Amino acid sequence: MFGRVILHNNIFNYHLSTAFDVTTLCWAFGVLLPYKQRQILGWCWAIFVLIALSDALWFDPFMSSINVVSRIAGNSLLTMLAMYHVWNLQPAGPPEKNPELVLGAMVLLYYPCSTLVFIVQELLPAGISARFPGNSATISSMLLYPPLRVLQVGLLIYLLSILPGGPAPRRALPGWLRFRFGKRPVPLHSPISQSVNHSK
Fold first, then answer.
1. Where are the domains of the chain?
2. Which stretches are transmembrane (predicted)?
């Protein structure tokens, strides 16, 4: 029973990932907001928590259904928050070097698009989807999701690299993602290359 329900089930990950994304990004934007706006954001986050709990317990059960309600609510909250944040940004240096602008762009590029993909996958009426042969509408929407996720991760790595004192882009990745193909080339100024040149 445990293996069938828990080990062979990844539905609950959708609920957890939505809660993690919304909570983390609300905290990140909240640090950048004045105190009064931070209080309003706290109330909005509390409302999202109530929606997420209601969705997990009643509308879309935690272990059997993807969280349609809480995901749309959370993505809408993040989109409005990012729009407000970008709209009120003050010009400070080159835009591509502004971490706050990159954070807003990352949210605005990923979460509205992923919401549309999610709506096509989960909420498209059967009468409309039946007009497309072989579930082509759902398959096409699923093909858009991996590039969106790659774009989000790429902007996140770039954001970490331009933070004050941030690491280089390659070091911003976890250790298990720092892979390379083939052998690392020997620099021309290394002792090994010098000994090879002298032997010639």
1. 2-199
2. 12-33, 40-59, 71-89, 101-124, 144-163
